[in-house]
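Expect sequence, tokenised fold; for instance:
***
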Amino acid sequence: MLKSKDGTLFFTSSFPGYDEEYVGQVLSDLCRKDILVRIAFGIYLKPVRSRFGIVYPQPSEVVAAIARRDKAKILPSGNTAAYHLGLTTQVPMRSEYITTGSARVIKIGNSSIALKRSVPRNFAYKDPMLPVLVQALKAIKEENLTEEHLGIIRRLLEDRPQQDTWQHDIRLAPVWIRKLLTDIKNSIDHDQMDRQ
């Protein structure tokens, strides 16, 4: 632990050979000695320190570590999904994710991560981009879509020609999103056929 590099995340469950309560006491002791920082219940960080203070990990890094620990699936949702795909340039103050694991809110420095438990259907997609796009569109809402949004969505779909996963995945999307994405995909396919 002391030899691990700065920026490493630890959980009380990171040391399976030891009792978790004992590990928690050791990690808490290292926090008192200013070697580690406790960023949430059971989550510790060997911090990167700059002249401005502690450099906290990106929310996506914390979420990925939690997913590995819990053997859970996690996807960006809400404005986090929209930002992730370039559908908004506004950095969300609160990072939102859906998960097959436990729901919780984790505060990291001045920001927070919200994990909401969600239904298995949201994790049944074969293409990793499509469920994130669906989450982003749910956050934006149909009535708020602009031509700029539609152009970005078109580019995202143009870069993903997997026809074999498309038929499976599009059936999982809510009806209005299914219609929107199918119309855009049909337009892309039509344009590609015209160019051939």
